[in-house]
What we know:
- The chain has 570 residues and is an alpha/beta fold.
- The protein has 18 helices and 23 strands.
- It folds into 3 domains: 2-176, NAD(P)-binding Rossmann-like Domain (Rossmann fold, 3-Layer(aba) Sandwich); 180-320, Orthogonal Bundle (N-(1-d-carboxylethyl)-l-norvaline Dehydrogenase, domain 2); 326-563, Alpha-Beta Complex (Creatine Amidinohydrolase).
- The relative contact order is 0.07.
Amino acid sequence: MNITLCGGGSWGTAIARLLSNKGHKVNFYIRNKSVIDDIKKNKENTKYLPGAKFEKEINLTDDLDSVLKDIDVFVIAVPTSSTRGILEKIKDKISKDTIIVNLSKGIEVETLDRISEISSEILKDNPFVALSGPSHAEEVGSDIPTTVVASSLDMKAAVKIQHEFSTSIFRIYTNPDLIGVEMGGALKNIIALAAGMNDGLGYGDNSKAALMTRGIYEMSKLGIALGANPHTFNGLSGIGDLIVTCTSMHSRNRRAGILIGEGKSMEEACKEVGQVVEGVKTVKSSYKLSKLKNIEMPITNALYQVLYEGYDPNKAVYDLMTRKNKDEIEKMDISGNVISGMHEALREFVKPGLTTMQVNDFCEKFIRSKGAIPAQIGFEVFPYATCCSVNDEICHGYPSDDVIKSGDLLKVDTVVELNGWMSDSCWSYAVGEIDEDTQNLMDVTRECLYEGIKLAVIGNRLGDIGAKIQSIAETNGYSVVREFTGHGIGRGMHEDPMVLHYGKEHRGLRLQEGMVLTIEPMINMVTHKLKIDKNGWTARTIDGNKSCQYEHTLSITKDGQRILTKLQGQ
Length: 570
């Protein structure tokens, strides 16, 4: 094949070398003539990819127009900000059959376009293929085995690039989800910046793992909102690329993040890295997209504050994990009053003969009558205002036409949003006359909640809360569910930190003023083991015995804890 590659950085150099070694005719356009002279003299790009020798002849040029005629493939390996200009230059100078292959990973700041969208706007008829995945130029240049993904709306083009670009050490899979592949490649750079900041600030592997885990979720949320397949983010161009970029010193984005965490400005960090740090601009474009699509992206928001508003990185990490100010807590308290009022009304409403759907409808009507929003509706795929879980259903029960009977244990869990702030509470209800065992389970679970809350004070650790809850439950012969936890809450339904209801004292994040979180122990009558229903949501005890849950949203204050979802009489 006759291939022209544009961009003399490390990644462009690595791919140019790979393609020439495979036997393709490669025209390597590099704007900087000194880099061309360097490669001609040393058979390697000593500035951007030292040690990666070109073993076969390659046509080096700084005249783009001279290498556009009769080419089969045009490869873009320039920063996202330069892509539009390059495509405008080659417009009307290449055949409509020429395949455009993009190696860069970003989102145009001004238009919020992905690179495929830029290409389709300028080169309407040319097939476009995105090549993405966990791939450091340094390793490809050293012939270390690497696997990536080729994605296109024209899968014939993707398959062709797969065949022509693959070697024994460079394996390519195909994926038709172009949006997901492009967004995964772009957004992981944001999380890599955050991971680098984590390292530069002196935080450990635990916090970085949390960032990466929450990062892949954040990436997928925006991607899905734009039309991506959620499964793409679990593959090479999602979590695969995320892992390698967040953990390797080859990563420009991680290195820049480290420098920022150590106290350097964004400009100083990028200058020291020496090549374009795509994540810096992707933070801005993704921040804009998140606002446009009304998607909660706390990591992106925190980085935007650091990079573009001069916010202290250490404070940003802390805020990301924990803190709310007084005004924000007051707003959450108002939201909490709605949810506590709902639960108080349910005390009179719940009785044998009702369906769980009737309970759900009652709650939704109550919430909306207060000018609030039942935030669970539309969360991921959940369609109801409440989770109504009965007896052996631990949590996330679907409201239905099933009738509750005397002796049943009903748990009603909901999230209320009011003026942009959320509160979360679950309460358990005895339906009619219940037996002594069920009553005891309810009493112990409620004790677990309030004894855990007592320990939610400045200076204690999250592990202190979990250890206390576990001790009470197991002393009474019950068990604590492991798979579902409490969590931070604010503008988002689920924020950091994660609050385990089991564990060891003196472990975990230290509690500080301004933290807002939920404590929501789920206590099973026998084993803590569970199973998930076919709906993918409802969890129930594996042995069919009852489970109970109580939950409050609370804030940590200098005077102790403040329950934001407190019911009358408590």
